[in-house]
Amino acid sequence: MKKLESERIAETLRGELEVGRWKAGECLPSVAELRNRFGTGTFAVRAAVRNLRDEGFVELRPRIGIVATEKGGVSMKGRILFVCVGERGSFFEQRLYVRLARRFDESRWSCIPVFLRSAHDGHLDVSPLARQVAEGVSLAIVLASERQVTEFLGREGIAYIVLNGYARDYPDAVGVVREDFIDCYCELIKVLRERRVKSLVEFDAERVMDRSFKVQLAAAGIPIRRVMCERDNESSWTLADFKRLGYSAVARFFSVSANRENPPDVVMFDDDYLAAGGIVAMLEAGIRVPQDVRVVFYSNKGNEPVLGISPARIENDPVAYADIVYDYAVKFLSGRKCAPPRNIWRFVPGDSL
Questions:
Q1: 145 in the same domain as 189
Q2: CA 207, CA 122: separation in Å to the nearest integer?
Q3: pTM of structure
Q4: Which whole number is the average pLDDT over 220-226?
């Protein structure tokens, strides 16, 4: 039987990979170059490359191309997508992906990052995701805030895991990883009571405050004042914008003489980038940290603002989080049923509490 054009191309490239024409990590010619070399169409070349990828000879890396592997000949089990918003994702997403990719690679699953940007109308451009889905996907991993992504995956019939969400909001997800703050809130409130904190101001860019924290604060007799950091088109915001947002909100707050002359005992930030800008604004306003005002904020491990102190923080470890997600994903992919896990945050006192 006559071989398909794609099979002929794959056989030739496979032989060249086996004799070491391209070392592990080196890029093969582009699809256009291969098309010219073999005198065939794009469809046949792409089909050949997909076959080599499924056999473990190459990887397809966004913005890089076709890359030779060091485990040629060992079949990959399938493709997993890690969906990020932004050109490279946030610090948290980058660290999460690196760990996930390493763990999945050890188990012979290919983990592929998909970076989405906002279109001109403010909505996400899901065309990069659509291209990856067209090549076949076993599972997708996506943050809960990206509702457009989960709706697209649902329409395409792709199984997906949601991070940082609530199961009631994503009934079609195969799993939703919940955030668990209970223990760290107890530790934080214990320290606040020991320090006899009587006033706490939180700078926040989200609309909903964590109810369990609010209830525990009220039970401890610690009043909280919430200051919203207003932003417009959220889908177009960058991390640098969050720093400026924190800076402007705090500068505005302490421009009021009553707040400057009688500052709160503790200032809390809902995000480490908000904190990075907000702490600078406090120092410029003559508010000493932690002598005049103590600071605590939500943070991803390794991403704390570097300002000569180590502020107290409610900390999330991206590496530990990735291991939790990986374990759950592998159980799902192998057909084993298990309860969705929780990602447990911890409280770190730092220098400011």
A1: no
A2: 19
A3: 0.71
A4: 88
